[in-house]
């Protein structure tokens, strides 16, 4: 790269809080975004925020209780965080960039869905960003099957001045079709983020759950399984659908592709294996969506693993934009 563009790139990244590794050749860096993409954060620099005991405060002023999170980040209580480049304590920059793009593209209303919601980080971040831009007609829909995570989801909305009863928060799992599924009973939800529902008696699913939850008997409970299309049709439009359900993403997106094309402006997907990366890439590409950002799953090969997801060291991310989004009617709710 010529010296002037290289210096420009470095200066931009330093402005947003992180310079590239000096000795890493450009073709060995994989950020998933360009320096120009970081301009989406320009309107969110001056949000008033201050440190609060018992809370982690991010660049949008969102307050998060560290006890809702894994042990290794609980020491962040009482801290304030800036623009998340190249990432923050729970996600890489590409995921935040996709979220902020969905807010900047919103017109008068903001509708966001988070499937596998956990404590609702993307719901509340999107709603807070929309509120900062003066949008008051906001609706969040979150689906979470884990009992502990569902409790923190409701609390997270309250902690950021959103009434959970004015939004749609569902304790359930999401699938291609409606029905019932089994979900692990987790004693320490804050330190377990890999659980997922199962149907039938799948040895591979059992092996996967053992790999993320440890050996021994795993107690299961029956949960409602909500169909993706039933959720999508609750609104005429969705500014963002965020999906992170630990391996069921391809089945869910395949079943919902028609309604996603009609209603969703942007989709962010957490990926959990190289095969899932490829399956989703092919699916959305064939449906004429536009890939804005992506980071592939990081894996360490293990010949003994029964599921590819068990080899994952770090999840991937895909950010897709619907080229037909201008044709989606505005919500009348």
Top keywords for this entry?
three-stranded mixed beta sheet; Rossmann fold; 14 strands; alpha/beta; single chain; 28% helix; 333 residues
Could you explain the architecture of this structure?
The chain has 333 residues and is an alpha/beta fold. The protein has 2 domains: 1-30; 87-327, Rossmann fold (3-Layer(aba) Sandwich). It has 8 helices and 14 strands. It has a 7-stranded mixed β-sheet with strand order 5-4-3-9-10-14-11, with helices on both faces. A 3-stranded mixed β-sheet has the order 6-8-7. Strand 4 (137-144), helix 4 and strand 5 form a beta-alpha-beta unit. Helix 7 (249-263) packs parallel to helix 8. The radius of gyration is 20 Å and the shape is globular. It starts with a helix and ends in a 12-residue tail after the last strand. The mean pLDDT is 87.
> What's the architecture of the largest domain in CATH terms?
3-Layer(aba) Sandwich
Do you know the CATH topology of the largest domain? Rossmann fold
- Work out the strand percent: 15-25%
Q: Strand-and-helix sequence, N→C?
A: HEEHEHEHEEEHEHEHEHEEEE
Task: Walk across the major sheet and give the strand order.
Answer: 5-4-3-9-10-14-11
The domain count comes to: 2
Please give the alpha-carbon distance between the first and last residues. Answer: 50 Å
Q: What is the number of helical segments per DSSP (H or I, 4+ residues)?
A: 8
- The helicity comes to 25-40%
User: CATH homologous superfamily name of the largest domain?
Assistant: Vaccinia Virus protein VP39
From the alpha-carbon coordinates, what is the Rg to the nearest angstrom? 20 Å
Q: Tell me the number of strands.
A: 14
Integer average pLDDT:
87
Runs with pLDDT <50, length 5+?
Answer: none
- Quick one: biggest sheet? 7 strands, mixed
Shape: globular
Structural class: alpha/beta
| The CATH C-level class name of the largest domain | Alpha Beta
């Amino acid at each position: 790269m010529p010296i002037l563009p290289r210096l420009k790139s470095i200066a931009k990244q330093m402005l947003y809080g992180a310079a590239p590794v000096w000795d890493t050749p450009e073709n060995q860096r994989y950020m998933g975004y360009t320096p120009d993409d970081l301009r989406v954060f320009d309107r969110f620099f001056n949000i008033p925020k201050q440190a609060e005991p018992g809370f982690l405060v991010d660049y949008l002023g969102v307050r998060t209780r560290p006890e809702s999170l894994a042990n290794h980040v609980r020491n962040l209580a009482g801290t304030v965080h800036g623009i998340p480049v190249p990432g923050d304590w729970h996600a890489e920059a590409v995921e935040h960039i996709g979220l902020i793009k969905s807010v900047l593209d919103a017109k008068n209303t903001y509708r966001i869905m988070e499937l596998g919601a956990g404590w609702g980080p993307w719901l509340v971040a999107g709603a807070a960003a929309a509120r900062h831009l003066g949008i008051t007609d906001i609706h969040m829909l979150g689906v979470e099957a884990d009992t502990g995570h569902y409790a923190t989801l409701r609390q997270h909305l309250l902690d950021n001045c959103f009434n959970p009863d004015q939004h749609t928060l569902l304790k359930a799992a999401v699938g291609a079709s409606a029905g019932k599924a089994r979900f692990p009973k987790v004693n320490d939800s804050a330190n377990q983020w890999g659980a997922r529902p199962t149907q039938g008696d799948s040895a591979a699913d059992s092996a996967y759950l053992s790999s993320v939850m440890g050996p021994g008997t795993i107690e299961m409970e029956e949960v409602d399984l909500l169909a993706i299309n039933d959720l999508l049709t609750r609104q005429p439009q969705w500014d963002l659908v965020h999906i992170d359900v630990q391996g069921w993403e391809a089945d869910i997106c395949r079943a919902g592709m028609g309604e996603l094309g009609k209603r969703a402006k942007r989709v962010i997907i957490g990926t959990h294996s190289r095969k899932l990366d490829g399956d989703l890439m092919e699916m959305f590409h064939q449906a004429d969506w536009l890939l804005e950002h992506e980071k592939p799953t990081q894996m360490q090969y293990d010949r003994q693993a029964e599921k590819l997801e068990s080899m994952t060291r770090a999840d991937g991310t895909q950010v897709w934009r619907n080229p037909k989004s201008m044709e989606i009617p505005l919500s009348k709710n």
